[in-house]
Amino acid sequence: MRIKAAVLRAHDAPHRIEEVELAAPGPGEVLVRIAGAGLCRTDLLPRVPGFPAAPPIVCGHEGAGVVEEVGPEVGRLEPGDHVVLSYDSCRSCADCLWGRPAHCETFFSRNLTGTGVDGPGPMRDERGAPVAARWFGQSSWATHSLVAARNTVKVDRDLPVELLGPLSCGIQTGAGAVLHTFNVTFGSSVIVCGMGSAGLGAVMAARVAGADTIVAVDADPDRLDLARGLGATHGFDGAREDLPALLLEATGGGAQYALDTTGLPSMISIAVHALRPGGTCGLVGAQQGDLVLDSEALTAGRTLTGIVGGDTVPQVFIPQLIRLWRQGRFPFERLITAFPLEEIDRAEEAVLKGEVVKPLLVPAA
Fold first, then answer.
1. Is residue 346 assigned to a domain?
2. Which CDD domains does this entry report, sorted A to Z (predicted)?
């Protein structure tokens, strides 16, 4: 069928809204009309020369919408169902079977190449040339997306489905880090470095978990104000020279948990040293350079761990976040700023400048 999609034709080029041909759903696949799709910094990786996912490509990996057509061998979905789209995983390797789909043995090839693992992609341009459309199994910066039914999360039809896509990546990662990886308990202390969607998701989750002290760290005072409004008890400028002392004071000598979303080695080192004995520091996203810790950093039982996808199963965790939202306890909509899909480059510029937390691209009706 003919659809419209935001196609990146070159690393340094603007996106072009093009008419493209999208294949019909095959076995196990569904066609979803996209109601809204988040813009995440991970979606900008195809702009990096030499990155395996090369233009021409359609990105977007935080989509949500309405099922329009189902292929053969799809039993649990039907046209009209509302769904959130998640990343792709095989569901059969050891990590998937252990409930760790973000650690799927074929995660990189399925999600970060743009072409997936199933042969020729489902999209072609007006000249008949292929366009990579398997970015995180969905390529949802478009009016429609062709996805594996196993990677969808069915949600109630009375929900604002256009807002739900961002739950599937950054917000889920931050909240999952707190509620699953750390298993934060009532009365504990949490430091969160970086107030993007993952960091703010972590702040909201820490409040849900009943943490007594929730410290937000960021260089943007507006982000710190937002964090306080979402549950942070303290907010500190990450550029302050006395930040290590401030963190220790705020947490009564050290936090049980710290989450870094900045990827900055200097910030990670500060976070690790702000832990009390036995504390855990989690790292989200790619680190920006080598991390060197002194010989005392991990003494007294401190732990440093990488976190992917919040260590969650999206089909279980996203509905849990939605239930919290219904209760007024997880107001993720406060992170979102909507843009028409046609203004994708303005949205990209806004996120790079730090003007918005989570852009939401909305295709024209």
1. yes
2. benzyl_alcohol_DH (cd08278)
